[in-house]
């Protein structure tokens, strides 16, 4: 079978669209990689930062006991 000119044109348009999308995605990734994020800051108050967090509960004791084997 023989393709007519309209089918060839549609195929070329589709290829150029896909090529453009690929280049756009690569460009966006390159820009995102070069941007630097601001350093994260703690949202806790000073009182929350110094409070005791570790609690040796029964499941923690069991975890330690099982890992000593």
Automatic annotation (TrEMBL):
It comes from the Bacteria. The keyword Membrane does not apply. The keyword Phosphoprotein does not apply. Keywords: Plasmid. This is Formate dehydrogenase region TAT target.
């Amino acid at each position: 079978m023989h393709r007519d000119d309209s089918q060839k044109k549609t195929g070329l348009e589709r290829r150029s669209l896909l090529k453009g999308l690929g280049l756009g995605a690569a460009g966006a990734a390159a820009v995102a990689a070069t941007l630097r994020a601001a350093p994260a800051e703690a949202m806790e108050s000073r009182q929350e930062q110094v409070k005791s967090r570790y609690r040796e509960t029964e499941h923690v004791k069991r975890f330690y006991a099982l890992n000593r084997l």
